[in-house]
Amino acid sequence: MARTPLIAGNWKMNLDHLQAVAYVQKLHWTLKDAAHDDASVEVAVFPPYTSIRSVQTLLDADKIPFAHGAQDLSMHDAGAYTGEVSGAFLAKLGCAYVIIGHSERREYHHETDEIVAAKVQAALRHGLVPVICVGETLEQREESGPTAVSVAQLQVALEGVPADADIVVAYEPVWAIGTGQVASPEQAQEVCAAVRQVVADKLGADAAARTRILYGGSVKSGNIASFMREPDVDGALVGGASLVAEEFAAIIRYQK
Ligand code: PEP
């Protein structure tokens, strides 16, 4: 089954809503000569909550057909949860995707595999596609090998997920995020293949054939093509390099 590659830009806590406007304008002019009308690659951007509306309005006005999403959501749908943002609100805003279980949330906000699983359920309840992040630290890699942590994290995250659910998994080795220490394409392939096997075991062969598995960790315009050549790598989750419009434009045009 052919899977449409997905390039996802995770802005993290960067670009306020005014800076986001300037960014999208720059992206517009960068893409101008070869507008991103290439349906063979899907692109999604994940601004901070406060910039989602500005980004969406500008992308629509500029006819840049990117999807957008949020970097997290609440496991609850509504109520007395100060500071939380419901998946219902994100869906109403037109978000298609939501990142769940990013290593920064696991580390700094103590999100456990069970919390990640509850957030996956919340996303699916509201028709959002969860981008489920998994990946090991260097110590975990040395201790239990390259695939064990991602396999274990994903097994919990997929508890109760129906076989026909639309999900994305992002393999992000923690040691490669924001460090410039990129995994090799072979290392990415090894874990992405193991991740696909978990999807097969939990959700069945059809889901495994359909589900997009991304690599994330110091992806740049200079290395994206090498990852995309791997059979189980269906795209990239890009952090730092997605903040520079010219660089992100070059990444999404990796085939050119
Ligand atoms: C990320 O945070 O999801 C990420 C992959 O970051 P970077 O590309 O900066 O390593």
Automatic annotation (TrEMBL):
Binding site for substrate: 10-12, 178, 218, 239-240
Entry keywords, A to Z: Cytoplasm, Gluconeogenesis, Glycolysis, Isomerase
Keyword hit for Acetylation: no
Catalytic activity: D-glyceraldehyde 3-phosphate = dihydroxyacetone phosphate
EC number(s) stated in the UniProt entry for this protein: 5.3.1.1
Protein localization: Cytoplasm
Coiled coil (UniProt feature): none
PROSITE patterns: TIM_1, TIM_2
Entry GO CC: cytosol
GO aspect biological process, one term: glycerol catabolic process
Enzyme type, top EC level: isomerase
Enzyme active site: 102, 172
InterPro entries hit by this protein: Aldolase_TIM (IPR013785), TIM_sf (IPR035990), TrioseP_Isoase_bac/euk (IPR022896), Triosephosphate_isomerase (IPR000652), Triosephosphate_isomerase_AS (IPR020861)
GO molecular function: triose-phosphate isomerase activity
Statement: the UniProt record of this protein carries the keyword Isomerase: yes
Main localization, broad class: cytoplasm
Pathway entry: Carbohydrate degradation; glycolysis; D-glyceraldehyde 3-phosphate from glycerone phosphate: step 1/1; Carbohydrate biosynthesis; gluconeogenesis
Function: Involved in the gluconeogenesis. Catalyzes stereospecifically the conversion of dihydroxyacetone phosphate (DHAP) to D-glyceraldehyde-3-phosphate (G3P).
Subunit organization: Homodimer.
Family stated for the protein in its record: Belongs to the triosephosphate isomerase family.
Protein name: Triosephosphate isomerase
